[in-house]
Design goal:
Helix content is 41%, strand content 17%. With 313 residues, the protein is α/β, with parallel strands linked by helices. The chain has a single domain, classed as NAD(P)-binding Rossmann-like Domain (Rossmann fold), CATH 3.40.50.720. The longest helix has 22 residues, at 291-312.
C-alpha cells in the first residue's frame, strides 16, 4: 500500500513511520524542516516538503497514494498553551489542512483516510462511561476538532473509508506534558484543576501508534484511542509519585479551572472513556492497559536516557 503520512516527525508519527515501513508499505512522509529528511530516509520512507495549506501542491503530492494518514498538529507546549492565540495554528491545520488533504485524497484516488482527533472534547460525565455515541462538547480553543472530523467523514462515500481516531491524553518519555508532570509531582503539587475522584483517560505514545496501524483495517467511523482503564485523578498522579518514589502530590483545587478559561474547564472534566469499539473492530490491545504500567515504562526509559547522556559526557 502507498501511504501518505503527515505529522511524521511528531511523537506519534515517528512511531507510526517504522511500523508502516516494517509492514512493507511504501511511505511518503511530510517533513517541514530539512533536518528531518535524514530521519525519515533512515526509517525507509520518502520525505517530501509540502505546504499543507497549498491546495494544488497537496494534490500533486498525494496523487497516486492508496491511504492518507493525517497526524499533523501544532500544539503549544507548557504554559504557552494558556496564551491568547496559542492554538491558532493548530486550528488552521484542523480546519484548512485537513480539508485540503481530504480533497487531495479523493482527487488522487485514495481509498482510506485516517484523521487524528481529540477525546477530551467529550463532556464531563462524572462516573459514567463515555463511548463514541456520546456527543462531543469541545470548548472554545478546541472547536476545530469538529471541522477535522467532518472532513474525514466527508471522505467516507463512493466506497472510500474515513476513520477518525479520538486520542486521549498522551503520555510518554518524549512528551513535554509527561516531563512537566514529573517535575510537578517531584515538587509536591500538580496544577491541573479537577476533583481528585474525577477520571482521566490517557494513552501512551506507543499504544497510539499501534492504534493508527489498526485503523488501516478498520471500517469507516470514529474510534476512541484510550487505555483499558481510565484512572481517577488522584490515582493518576499518585501512581506516578509511587513510581518516582516520592510522596503523593497535592492537587490543584477544582475552582482553579476558572483561572484558565475554556482550557481549564476542559482539563477539569471527568472523562471515563471506553476503548471497546476499537478493540472489537481491529483487535487492538494496548501494551499498557493502565497508566500504572505506562509510568513504569516511562520512568525506565527516561532513566536509561539520562545514564547514556551522563556516560557520553
Amino acid at each position: 500500500m502507498r501511504v501518505f503520512l503527515t505529522g511524521a516527525t511528531g511523537v506519534i508519527g515517528r512511531r507510526v513511520l517504522p511500523l508502516l515501513v516494517g509492514l512493507d508499505h511504501s511511505v511518503t512522509a511530510v517533513a517541514h524542516r530539512p533536518q528531518s529528511w535524514g530521519e525519515i530516509e533512515r526509517a525507509g520512507a520518502v520525505p517530501v516538503q509540502v505546504d499543507l495549506f497549498a491546495r494544488a501542491a497537496i494534490q500533486r503530492a498525494v496523487a497516486g497514494h492508496d491511504a492518507v494518514i493525517n497526524l499533523a498538529t501544532h500544539l503549544p507546549a507548557g504554559l504557552r498553551m494558556f496564551l491568547p492565540g496559542a492554538w491558532a495554528e493548530n486550528d488552521r491545520i484542523r480546519r484548512i489542512a485537513s480539508a485540503n488533504l481530504v480533497d487531495a485524497a479523493i482527487a488522487g484516488g485514495a481509498t482510506r483516510f485516517i484523521q487524528e482527533s481529540f477525546a477530551p472534547a467529550y463532556p464531563d460525565r462524572g462516573e459514567a462511561w463515555i463511548d463514541e455515541r456520546t456527543p462531543i462538547a469541545p470548548v472554545r480553543y478546541s472547536r476545530s476538532v469538529v471541522d477535522a472530523e467532518r472532513s474525514a467523514q466527508r471522505f467516507s462515500s463512493g466506497g472510500r473509508t474515513g476513520v477518525v481516531l479520538r486520542f486521549a491524553a498522551f503520555y510518554g518519555p518524549d512528551s513535554w506534558f509527561t516531563r512537566d508532570l514529573i517535575r510537578y509531582v517531584r515538587h509536591g503539587f500538580v496544577p491541573i484543576p479537577g476533583a481528585a475522584d474525577s477520571f482521566i483517560s490517557s494513552v501512551s505514545h506507543d499504544d497510539a501508534a499501534t492504534a493508527v496501524m489498526g485503523a488501516l483495517l478498520a471500517r469507516a467511523g470514529i474510534y476512541n484511542v484510550v487505555d483499558d482503564e481510565p484512572m481517577r485523578r488522584g490515582e493518576f498522579v499518585g501512581s506516578l509519585a509511587e513510581t518516582l518514589g516520592v510522596p503523593a502530590p497535592k492537587l490543584a483545587p477544582p475552582w482553579m479551572k476558572y483561572l484558565f478559561g475554556s482550557l481549564g474547564e476542559m482539563l477539569a472534566r471527568s472523562l471515563r472513556i471506553s476503548n471497546r469499539k476499537l478493540r472489537e473492530e481491529c483487535a487492538w490491545v494496548p501494551k499498557y492497559p493502565t497508566v500504572r504500567e505506562g509510568w513504569r515504562a516511562v520512568a525506565a526509559t527516561i532513566s536509561a536516557s539520562s545514564q547514556v547522556r551522563s556516560t557520553a559526557r
